[in-house]
Amino acid sequence: MQYLLLLLCLGGVQLVPLEESYLSSKEKCGYESCPATSPNMLNVHIVPHTHDDVGWLKTVDQYYYGSRNNIQKAGVQYILDSVVKELWESPERRFIYVETAFFWKWWVRQPTVIQEKVHTLVRQGRLQMVGGAWSMNDEAASHYQSTIDQFTWGLKKLNDTFGKCGWPHVGWQIDPFGHSREFANLLAMMGYDGLFLGRIDYQDKRARLKGKNMEMVWRGDDVLGKSSDIFTGVLFNTYSPPPGFCFDVLCADEPIIDDPSSPMYNVELKTSLFKIFFSLLKIMHFLDICTNMSKAYKTSNILLTMGEDFHYQDAAMWFRNLDKLIEYSNLKAAKDGMNISVFYSTPNCYLKSVKEANPTLPTKRDDFFPYARVMQHHDAITGTEKQHVTHDYERLLSQAIDDAIIIAKQAFNKMVTKDRNSKPVFDFQRCHLNESSCEVSESSDSFVVTIYNPLGWSVKEPVRIPVTDGASIKTQLVSISTKVKSIPTRVSRATQEIVFLAELKPLSYKNFYIKKSNRPKRNLKPTFDFYSNINRNVWPNINYNDLSKTEYEKYLTTQPIPDAPLYLQDIPNAYDRIINLDVLKNGPNDNSEKILEMEKILTENGRKMDKINIENHFETDPNAQDKKILELKQILNDNTRKTDKGNDAANIDDLKANTDDHDQKMMELEKIFDDRKSTAKGTNEPKMANFPVMFNMEEMRMLSDDPHAAVGVDDVVSLGNQHFTLEVNKATGVINNVIFSDHSKANFSINMYYYLGTCGDNHDTAHRASGAYIFRPACNAPIKLDSFSNEIIKGDIVKEIRVELSPAGYIDVKIYDNHNYIEVEWVVGPIPILDDIGKEYIVKYETKIVNNGEFHTDSNGRQLLKRNRDFRPQWNVTLQEPVPGNYYPVTNQINIKNNDLKLTVLTDRSQGGSSMADGEIELMLHRRLLCDDAFGVGEALNETAKDKGLVARGKHRVYITKGKDDLKAQVVEMHQPPILLFADAKNIKYDDWLAMDNEFSWLDKDLPKGIHLLTLEPWDSKLLIRVENYYEDENASANVNLQDLFKNIKILNVEEMLLAGHRPADGYKQWVWKKEGVTETAEAVKSPDSKNLTVNIKGKEIKTFLADFEIKQHHTLVKSPKMEISTHYEVTTVV
């Protein structure tokens, strides 16, 4: 969408200028402002700081303004007000600030006199920015492009406001749960000199403390080599002050009382405790020399964090006590000859002191995942904010999307009309395609779909548009599944989807004109459907000439068997399943219109059921039927219970918890049987068949009068395309094998499971609950979901296998024409919790690949890292929790392989994943838990919508390949699919539409293979351009001519910048550290000649440029002939 902002610039839409900068280089800032240290003393760097979550227990605005203090006493505006006041009073004091989002919100509301004071504090190094991104982003779930963008935005604000003195020199990732290798690589490319971490795995930290390896050189990428190195330090106390020295209004520690006449005088006590704390570190250093045990740090410098979450709302409390602590500690140390020097400092200054000490550091080449604490604290899968904060994030995201749509409306309207000054023609809207819902396509007789390809190469992408009716056409029309139509939040009349393959040029848009045509209705010649036993005057005979492109085959999981007994029995850990008792409908020879139905009698309110035989449920003997009625009533009475889950009570439509409704249900049940008894005498009706325990009204079909109608079908159906064929079990819908184009075969199946979530009182590890922070299943073996209905769809463009799973699962396997992947759409929810057990749903892709515990996951969507089950590269791990201990963040892909076969799954969102057994890949889909894990949120992860459990829908793309494959481009395509916008065309005549510019590409041709246009957006009066080579071979370089890259933009000259775009690359010199067993020298980054616009980009490099440009005045918009496809819907486009 950022490219569309560029279109507005080119179209003459004025952008709002940013604030004017106050720049000054007269005073010392950065490293030049650091205090002097002594190599012969223990230098204690006191670092005052606050950690201000941009949303956690309260929303962003609630935190900024300090509202809702009944939740948490926190107000960021008061922190910054108070800190600036206290810093101004003493030139020795220091403070660091991290979250630019909060700082900027505060900054723009300050009067000039306060802004000038802040400028002075920054220029003198007394207030220093660290991190500098818009927020302290998560490292497990964030995509690298999003990380780059949010750093770019935050650093631009600081650079425009404070110039070089506003440049952060260190990363400050003290609160994320686990740290990614790619994040370290990105910081190195942005020009950061160091990175400080707060949270790492407790076993890893224990080993590092013992081995004196709390500081290291982290190599961010093996292909990029030493240019990706960055100093990384693990903070001793996460980011808290030492016990007893928290001087905030939110703390209960005693202040320093230095009046000897006071009975509460505690200077000696306090300084003694302070001395003991650092004497301990000194002793550890001494013992390291004497007994070959190392201390935490290799130099005589210690960074001591003084602050916590939302501290310094009354900064005077902190600074007055820290002033005293520093003064009296230095006096006491000098008196006792302890060689300790305590002073105010910053992470920049600490890093400078460590660099001057020139230690030899170990090298790290992996990452800090999975993350676990003693209590198995794990946050690689789910967010950890309160639910109302989640809703506020949703509001902000929705608002941002709406703003982006405004940009898109203006940009595309300017492109499609020849007159750039004309009024907008189309009112483009976004649709809820994740719910197969679109008001424009459902209600309009004619509409335009604009599809925008943000990638620098051509793509052929499947497109699905929801409509209310239609017939098969070349584009193919497919029904929307019942599972999708039943999503609680869905508001839509659409029952079908138009499916077609859109061929899109690089960095282009393309318009499609779709209208309903007035075709005669299909022949409704009556016939009898033996599968459903619906009367012939109800079920129409479909004209298969019209539907030749899409065929539907529908199967029950268990085939009907006449005269077989039916049992209602306990299914362990699945008490929430809806049990429907549907009955035989009248056959073709029965003129009665009475339809006997009994369903949803035993619903989610039903608890554990004893095994009860109702074989003769439809006995013709009235006495026997009365007995069965009483039996069913007894089942209901014995097992019905009320639930305290208010949100799920709304899920039960047919059975309420109140007695009156219950009695009414019993009366209806008896009437059904009475009516049946009056018509059943003297007939030869078959008995109830052995249907599965789980079925619903749509999937449940009755036996025909001809019992052979339901049997005699083949067990296996084959579905495929030019690349592979899947063998599917008709009865279950489960895939058994994949057959490749060379006729070789491999085992492959897809199944859905769930883990039972642990509940506990959280008083120790063994009783820790699975919750927002914690993934902790009650047992290591997940429970497999049962299929109870499947449907097979065959068409020219897409073939599908739809399987409904119980409870609350759904899988739709799609095979598109001439596409070499299997698309798996999954839907989970509402997750049932009426058994008082939370559940965590996963999908497993199962093969016979022997991967020996090895698998690969991506790091923030970029590089792939090797994982080994039950193993850590840098310490001997002991896993208390085998499943969570092997889960890793998956941003884009996960794979397993052996010498013959490779299974790769691409995800459409960040998920937790693993290979818990050879041949398997599992990914977490959805979680619903009933117990809080007591790590701060204070509520269970029980999300709802429309008073029902939340429904999650997503998709995976599965590649099963032989030999070496290259899926780099496919990974990018999955992450950045085409954007669809819809506009009503009722006022647009077809001929007028044809005269518009309905297709345009901003590139003359595809970018060189491996090259990705990562960023193209206006940057003040320039363009910000990022070009990436996504190949992992450093020798796979490519040349890109920036001058002629764009069709309608001429690049005049460029300046290469560091990755975040805030400082020039020319002259930047990376810090080089002594590494164990390695000798290296520093290399300055050389910027290319600004006039030579052909740049060479090596494998894994991202080049960032600020470009001067001008618009080409005589470029020609490509206009191609039209293609019409006519049927019930007519789709017109350009080719």
TrEMBL record:
InterPro entries on file: Gal_mutarotase_sf_dom, GH38_C, Glyco_hydro/deAcase_b/a-brl, Glyco_hydro_38_C, Glyco_hydro_38_cen_sf, Glyco_hydro_38_N, Glyco_hydro_38_N_sf, Glyco_hydro_57/38_cen_sf
UniProt-listed CDD domains: GH38N_AMII_LAM_like
Keyword set, alphabetical order: Disulfide bond, Glycoprotein, Glycosidase, Hydrolase, Metal-binding, Signal, Zinc
Domain Glycoside hydrolase family 38 N-terminal, first and last residues per copy: 43-372
Catalytic activity: Hydrolysis of terminal, non-reducing alpha-D-mannose residues in alpha-D-mannosides
Domain Glycosyl hydrolases family 38 C-terminal: from-to ranges: 1011-1105
Any GO molecular function: metal ion binding
Enzyme Commission code: 3.2.1.24
Cleaved signal peptide residues: 1-15
Top-rank taxon: Eukaryota
Residues of the Glycosyl hydrolase family 38 C-terminal domain: 719-934
A single GO cellular-component term on record: lysosome
Cofactor(s) it depends on: Zn(2+)
Family to which the UniProt record says this protein belongs: Belongs to the glycosyl hydrolase 38 family.
Name of this protein: alpha-mannosidase
Organism expressing this protein natively: Spodoptera exigua (Beet armyworm)
